[in-house]
Design goal:
This protein is of the alpha+beta class and 614 residues long. The protein has ten helices and 33 strands. The N terminus is likely disordered.
């Protein structure tokens, strides 16, 4: 999401309609408010989106301080690309290097180029960093009043508009179909903008594809209805809802930030209202795989990040209104700006894994990297925090413990017989054990990390830092650690992904050999995983449902920790069933590498075992 916009969505904003020789945008419309927002590029209806009609000769207030117009930019050229962009929108970040390369390539073909940033919440510093980082040379406009975006009928932050010399819209939509919301192809299947430019330069009356939907942050350009009397205000309730459900990730302080921008102020939330509405409405945010709970129902999971039904309804109603601010006296204090400090406190040990080199662009990459446990004596781990060395370079990671005596698995195999230490994904990167519980780590252990890196527009090294806190030795000697944490892991037989003939089901079981207290469970699936359920099978043959994650998204590797550890009889089994579906053609998001493995289902059950002292 970026300012003045929202993150993704199915909201069809207005087309440009020629009236009396002047192109005017229609009012924003949402003909299918209950539909999920489209997450990938697709061909759209050109006529209803103003393609083939003139665009006004808009004035351009350039970021450099100069003034220009569309006609001045297009003069003596074969066409003009108006490319919407943003400095903090994740989709814009992915496309920034491609846009910078295309502007130079198309200049040789006689095509002018203008960047337009409609993100009112982005600072001059953020925009300047984008211009310098990607070496953007063409005119750049900060469209803070959305005058240009409204005139174009723009819908998302990644949309591009190709005009012919008469300012007639020749093509609008996506640059290509490589990136979508939660989708990254290895390479574009359709290069819509390039094809349109080639057609325009060759003199063709129209390109083969004239309009497409461009996934990105949704733009909020339409007038909203006034809130009803007595409706929630930002200061009165909405700020509290945002603080409880969003600001834990969307907070100031880039070094510790799990999300690309902060949502800790009225201005930031108001500027991204449509995107927030879309992702909350569709259940994408806050990220949570578990079943929804009824209002007032307590969750069994201490890690539950779902928004309550009452808060969800109040937030959506406010976002769809004119978003009243409310009394300033009720406003939450702005959180202190974060620094490089760790959420778990000052680490006793900080490890850095080996790294994986990422290309500028492309699909998800995998490598198995390592970090050696350096202490020469056993330690009892009480908390751990995972954090990428460079923000944004790690999509998710799975961390295993290779203890002395364990067999090192082949790089093309998922580790069998190893304990799971934890996982990293944005917003799920801290693990704290309850008081009196800790995990023993033996000297000579190695942490094997299945690292999934995501190219972010520049060459980078993807690596993971592991910050650890230990129970002090003297407290261990005094018996402070009463329960040792151990992970029981089962891996379903692997397969090479669904074929497109229908869903594939995988199953695995974790047996509990002795009476135990279960601290947490965690199912792990890959890109094509769509849902997973876990049930407890008792020795008497009865079963109990444990988890129903009907909308699994592998971007969020969630550990489900019980609010209170659950006592389990000896001989009980946790059984997981995962459902996988083939992605659309070309949509497979993982570029295979050493250890990439397959789409196996993994289930980890963390148990607490009494620590026996000599």
């Amino acid at each position: 999401m970026t300012g003045g916009l929202t993150r993704m969505g199915a909201i069809a904003l207005a087309a440009i309609v020629a009236m009396g020789g002047v192109a005017r945008p229609l009012a924003a419309q949402d003909p299918r408010p209950d539909d999920e927002m489209p997450r990938t590029a697709h061909v759209d209806d050109a006529a209803s989106l103003g393609v083939g009609r003139p665009v006004p000769d808009l004035e351009l207030a350039l970021f450099s301080g100069d003034k220009s117009t569309i006609s001045a930019q297009i003069k003596d050229r074969k066409g003009l690309v108006i490319a919407l962009t943003g400095a903090t929108c994740p989709m814009c970040v992915k496309y920034s290097p491609r846009l910078a390369a295309l502007e130079k390539e198309f200049a040789a073909k006689g095509i002018a180029w203008v960047f337009v940033n409609p993100a009112e919440a982005e600072t001059r510093g953020e925009i300047g960093d984008q211009i310098r980082k990607y070496r953007i040379e063409r005119p750049y406009v900060a469209d803070r009043d959305h005058r240009i975006a409204r005139a174009l009928g723009a819908r998302t932050t990644t949309e591009v508009f190709l005009l012919d010399p008469s300012r007639t819209m020749y093509y609008r939509g996506a640059v290509d179909d490589q990136y979508g919301i939660g989708v990254t192809r290895d390479a574009p299947g359709s290069e819509y903008l390039r094809d349109a430019v080639e057609a325009l330069v060759s003199g063709a009356p129209r390109p083969r594809v004239r309009a497409t939907w461009s996934p990105g942050c949704l733009l909020d350009l339409g007038a909203a209805p006034a809130a009803e009397a007595g409706a929630p205000t930002y200061n009165g309730r909405i700020a509290w809802i945002m603080a409880e459900n969003c600001v834990t990730c969307h907070r100031p302080g880039a070094a510790a930030n799990a999300a690309p921008f902060a949502l800790d102020s009225y201005e930031a939330v108001n500027a991204r209202a449509k995107m927030i509405e879309a992702v909350v409405r569709d259940g994408l945010m806050p990220p949570w795989h578990g079943a929804a709970r009824a209002e007032g129902e307590a969750s069994p999971w201490v890690t539950d990040r779902s928004i309550s039904p009452g808060d969800r309804d109040a937030l959506l109603a406010w976002l769809r209104s004119d978003r009243p601010r409310g009394e300033a006296s009720l406003c939450l204090p702005v959180p202190a700006r974060l620094s490089n400090t760790w959420n778990i406190g000052e680490p006793d040990l900080l490890l850095l894994s080996t790294g994986m080199r990422l290309p500028v662009q492309g699909g998800l990459r995998h490598a198995r990297v390592m970090a050696a446990f350096s202490p020469s004596e056993e330690r009892w781990l009480s908390a751990i925090e995972f954090r990428p060395m460079e923000a944004g370079t790690v999509h998710h990671a799975v961390v295993w413990v290779l203890a002395p005596g364990n067999t090192l698995p082949a790089t093309d195999q998922i580790p069998e017989g190893l304990e799971l230490l934890g996982t990293y994904s944005p917003g799920d990167n801290v693990l704290r054990y309850p008081s009196g519980a800790a995990r023993r780590v033996r000297p000579g252990s190695i942490f094997l990390i299945d690292l999934y890196g995501v190219p972010m527009g520049k060459e980078a090294i993807s690596s993971l830092r592991l910050a650890m806190r230990f129970v002090p030795r003297e407290q261990v000697e005094q018996g402070a650690v009463k329960w040792g944490v151990r992970s029981l892991v089962s891996i379903a037989p692997g397969f090479d992904g669904p074929t497109g003939d229908g869903p594939v089901t995988a199953m695995c079981e974790v047996g509990v050999p002795s009476a135990s207290r279960v601290l947490a469970i965690q199912p792990i699936m890959r890109a094509s995983g769509r849902s997973v359920g876990v049930e407890l099978r008792l020795p008497d043959g009865t079963t109990r449902p444990v988890l129903a994650a009907d909308r699994f998204d592998f971007r969020w590797q969630i550990r489900y920790e019980y609010a209170e550890p659950v006592s389990i009889a000896a001989g009980s089994r946790f059984a997981a069933t995962g459902r996988y579906e083939a992605a659309a053609a070309g949509e497979r998001r993982l570029v295979r590498g050493p250890g990439a493995g397959d789409d196996s289902l993994i289930l980890s059950v963390e148990v607490l075992e009494p620590v026996v002292r000599p």
